[in-house]
Amino acid sequence: MLLTIQKACFCHSLGSCWKIKKEEFLQSPCLKKPCVTSKAKLRRTSKTKEQRPRGEAPFKDLFDPDRFFVREYCLEVEEKVQKEKKQLIVQQTDHYKVFVHWLKVHFSQLSVAWIHLKALRVFVESALRYGLPVRYQALLLQADRKQSKRLEDELASLFGYLDPTATAS
């Protein structure tokens, strides 16, 4: 944990306040370390403390009213990673529920939009790739399984000039 104290507060009237707060803080087991850095306006001291008991108030609440800035650092990286994973899993389940609900409500609209996009793709691809006029009429044929090969051959013979790569294969 880093405590950042304004030098004016440390040197003058709040100096005694700092000493009182420091002694309150030191009642719990911790290792004392001297000043880490001292600049023109700020002084930083470092305190290493074991895990805080459950009933104890956070350090920030102890030092905030007197304009002391407290930064707590947790060196247990694995716990942070586990906590982040749990938060991400919770967020994922929440988003998944909303997404599934949205899909159930709007499925018919999605399927109609998908079909329209497919039809638009066929139109644009035919007009650009094969050079068909813009006012052509598209046709969708579904033949019996027995006659599908015959229909493919017939269409290839009629419209093979539109796609020379199809006849080569």
Briefly say what this structure is.
Pfam families: V-ATPase_C (PF03223). It contains six helices and four strands. The chain is of the alpha+beta class and 169 residues long.
Question: Could you explain how this protein is built, in words?
Answer:
It comes from Tetraodon nigroviridis (Spotted green pufferfish). The protein contains six helices and four strands, in the order βααββαβααα. 55% of the residues lie in helices and 15% in strands. It has a four-stranded antiparallel β-sheet with strand order 2-3-1-4. It starts with a strand and ends with a helix. It has 169 residues and is of the alpha+beta class. It folds into three domains: 2-73; 77-133; 139-168, no CATH class. The longest helix is centred in the middle third of the chain and has 53 residues, at 77-129.
